[in-house]
Amino acid sequence: MPTLNKTTKPGEQAGPRWHQKEPTFWEGIAIQRRVIWALILRETVTRYGRENLGMLWFFAEPLLFIVGITLLWSYIEPRSVPAGTVAAFAVVSYPTVLLWRNTANRVTKAIEVNQALLHHRPIRAQDFFYSRILLEFASATGSFLVIFILFVAVGISHFPANLFDMVMGWLMVAWFAFGFVLTMGGLSEVSEVVEKVSHIILYLMLPFSGGFFPAYIVPEPMRNYLLLFPLADCVEFFRYGYYGDSFPCYYHLGYTIICNLALTLFGLAMMTYAIRKVEAT
To answer: In this protein, which residues make up the domain named ABC-2 type transporter transmembrane (predicted)?
Structure first.
């Protein structure tokens, strides 16, 4: 809490001066948690409105994408899916695309469009990144859980062969998305060119994301080149958690963890650089 101290200098009259007590580490964490939550609520209301149907769209928007892609893929000849149906394959593949693509779209120019809020002392520029990332992760995860549970209930999908590996695979995809989104968000703040070509970059990543076809159908040595992209490894591991040994999956967790860590550090560095550049202008 602020404290009132009276200080005087030689030759001047004593007057009140307010000194703000610096928060402790844990107090600072609590403050930033409340700030990020407030920004999430603000972004949710701004995007979806205050009505119940507007809030329902929070899950319905990505859910409709998943349903549409699943129906489309169901008409594909299922020779590339040796276990289960194409619909079951789609529901454990396409949601991983939403996790990184939608988040990257939302974080672009996040500081610039919210710069007016920085006059509030508790709000930091990086909070704009974190709040939008958490919102998109929650939306993608929630919509995936809804449709996956529904598909299991009606018999289209089955219960995961290894639930722990499936959860860890989803977290690995989210980890990659976090580092990638920070990188794209930071670059978009410092370069207009990156902002303009960001959609092209996202589209070019789709064939290498692992979300549209399994790695085992790619012949050698092209498969090894594909798996150099850590996102494909993450998706393959996630898919292994669902199918287990009934579906051939290829991944290298040690390599993927190192790549995700390097991407996260680079993304944090880009975000910090972008914040400093914005604050200097």
So the answer is: 36-242
pTM across the whole model: 0.81
Pairing of β 15-19 and β 3-7: antiparallel
Q: Which residues contact 28 (CB under 8 A, 6 or more apart)?
A: none
pLDDT digits (tens, 9 = 90+) for 106-156: 888 888 777 777 777 788 888 889 999 998 898 889 888 988 898 899 888
In DSSP terms, 6 is beta-bridged to 16
CB 188 within 8 A of CB 195: yes
In a domain, 19, yes or no: no
Q: What are 68-115's pLDDT values in tens digits?
A: 776 766 665 555 555 566 778 888 888 898 889 888 888 888 887 777
CA 89/CA 87 separation, integer angstroms: 5
Task: Write phi, then psi, for 17 (nearest 5 degrees).
Answer: -135, 130
What range does the domain containing 80 cover? Answer: 26-204+215-280
Where residue 19 falls (left for φ over 0; alpha for ψ -120 to 50; beta otherwise) is beta
Banded pLDDT at 157 (limits 50, 70, 90): confident
Rounded Cα distance, 230 and 238, in Å? 12
The identity of residue 276, as a single letter, is R
| Residue 21 lies inside a defined structural domain of this protein | no
3-state secondary structure of 18: strand
Nearest CA-CA partner of 214 in 99, 103, 88: 88
Secondary structure class of 4 (helix, strand, coil): strand
In the 8-state DSSP scheme, what is residue 17? E
Number of structural domains the chain divides into: 1
